[in-house]
Specification:
By secondary structure, the protein is an alpha+beta fold. Helices cover 27% and strands 19% of the residues. Strands 1-2-3 form a three-stranded mixed β-sheet. It is elongated. 1% of the residues are buried.
């Protein structure tokens, strides 16, 4: 873990960013009092998501394609405004 004061952090900011990106936590201090921790964010997975339904075995029921009832249509359109 790196500990640096504000002046040193300003002077070496790029170096500190590279250290944090490499997994090294960086603590920035104000007069030797810890105030901020600089660390890398987790990177998104590079694994490709499968195309298709959300989960195996997922299917859309036939009732999904049936017309809505009058009551459902009223609710869909915002009810009795």
């Amino acid at each position: 873990m790196l500990r640096v004061n504000i002046a040193e952090a300003k002077a070496n900011f790029s170096k500190l960013l590279r250290a944090a990106q490499a997994g090294e936590p960086v603590i920035i201090c104000d007069r030797n009092r810890e105030i901020v921790e600089l660390r890398a964010l987790p990177q998104p997975s590079k694994e490709k998501r499968p195309l298709g339904p959300a989960r195996p075995g997922f299917s859309i029921p036939d009732s999904f394609f049936e017309p809505m009832s009058e009551e459902e249509l009223r609710e869909w359109e915002g009810g009795d405004l």
